[in-house]
Design brief:
Helix content is about 40%, strand content about 20%. The protein is α/β, with parallel strands linked by helices and about 260 residues long. Helix 6 links the parallel strand 6 and strand 7. Pfam families: AP_endonuc_2.
């Protein structure tokens, strides 16, 4: 299923805009675009709001017919336990995370211990933990970690854009992780010369205009055949003013949805 995530609303949620969009507002905007999946990913207020506010947000998602996924960073036992509880509130069956958290960089051995301790509860609840590909952990090491634990409820959140910063090729990342992918983050990316031709900037691009060989991902991972969700997000830089930035973010979302729907 095609979904939207909080990174598709990055600037609309930001305090830099006059009227930041609420989480429920993002739910409503998602349904207006004909999308039935939303991933609440790295959304800080989720961890600080009251239990009543969480229940209200979950009820709003249900009323809109939205399926919810969750996303955080880190594998500390208290973090994985907290997000399993949140998954219960929202009826989520997937939690995306990363080996490294905001305040922790565990060894693979320590991460192994934490994940093995958490997985029985995830398995019993029918929730999958998907670890994202990113530049701080080599793709081969991430795959080896998932293989070593060997649970159907542990896999990869595939975001091949991230690994370029570690000089890995996105296509190689796709091929190495294909058998273990549980979730896909969808965004295009490109290099652009900096002013004066001194170096490059690596950033986002409207879907279908950058370097992401998405047809290769589709044929290699086969997310539609395997019922793996494709969640839209963006790397959009600030466009100089709130109005232009929000308009561009919304345009990129529509462009990405049109691109994904055209490939079905």
């Amino acid at each position: 299923m095609i979904g939207l995530g909080t990174y598709a609303f990055f600037w609309q949620h930001s305090d830099l805009v006059p009227e930041p969009l609420s989480l429920v507002g993002a739910f409503e905007a998602t349904r207006e675009l004909g999308v039935e999946l939303f991933q609440i990913c790295d959304y800080a207020p989720l961890e600080t709001v009251s239990a009543a506010e969480l229940e209200d947000a979950a009820a709003a998602a249900r009323d809109l017919g939205l399926r919810i996924q969750l996303g955080t960073k880190g594998l500390e036992p208290e973090r994985l336990g907290r997000f399993l509880d949140l998954a219960g509130v929202f009826g989520a069956t997937l939690v995306r995370s990363m080996l490294h958290g905001p305040d922790s960089r565990p060894s693979h051995a320590q991460a192994d211990v934490w994940v093995r301790a958490a997985l029985p509860a995830y398995e019993a609840s029918g929730v999958t933990l998907a670890l994202e590909t990113y530049e701080q952990v080599a793709t081969a090491d991430l795959v080896a970690f998932v293989e070593r634990i060997g649970s159907e409820h542990l896999g990869v959140c595939l975001d091949p854009a991230n690994v370029v910063a570690e000089l890995e090729r996105p296509r190689d990342c796709v091929e190495a992780t294909a058998a273990y992918v549980k979730n896909v983050h969808v965004k295009d990316f490109a290099f652009a010369r900096r002013p004066g031709w001194v170096g490059f900037t690596y950033g986002g691009a409207p879907m279908g205009t950058g370097l992401h060989d998405y047809p290769h991902l589709l044929s290699t991972v086969r997310p539609r055949e395997r019922e793996i969700d494709e969640v839209v997000e963006h790397w959009l830089s600030w466009q100089g003013d709130p109005e232009t930035t929000i308009r561009t973010e919304r345009d990129w979302t529509r462009t990405t949805l049109e691109y994904l729907r055209s490939t079905t």
